[in-house]
Task: inverse folding
């Protein structure tokens, strides 16, 4: 996510988000279980005015519809959010789910898995 896409909250939005952080399944006494790699790590969403945690955006923020609508406006007409990276893009077809960058990366990954499977079977 680029610096221009990071959302900054007002104080009231920050307080509402702080209350929501406690609903996150990865929140444990002020620490983030997702970021824990052997030593405790403070939940970034609980200490910043920026909406930076992808898990918080996807799973926790929708619990408060008003805050979600204020922070994440719906995509513009004809644009869609990429399922991989979350950026807005203009899909060339109605069933396109990923931006061109993520689609190319997914194709490479898929081809790699296919080749590995076929090498193992041959």
Result:
């Amino acid at each position: 996510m680029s610096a221009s896409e990071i959302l900054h909250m007002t104080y009231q939005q920050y307080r509402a988000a702080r209350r929501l952080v406690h609903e996150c399944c990865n929140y444990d006494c002020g620490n983030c279980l997702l970021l824990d790699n052997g030593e405790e790590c403070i939940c970034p969403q609980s200490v910043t005015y920026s909406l930076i945690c992808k898990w918080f955006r996807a799973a926790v923020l929708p619990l408060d519809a008003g805050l979600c609508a204020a922070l994440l406006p719906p995509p513009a007409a004809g644009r869609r959010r990429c399922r991989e990276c979350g950026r807005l893009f203009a899909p060339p077809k109605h069933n396109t789910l990923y931006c061109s960058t993520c689609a190319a990366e997914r194709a490479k990954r898929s081809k790699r898995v296919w080749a590995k499977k076929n090498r193992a079977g041959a």
Observations:
- The CA atoms of residues 107 and 113 lie 10 Å apart.
- The chain has a mean pLDDT of 84.
- Residues 1-73 form one domain.
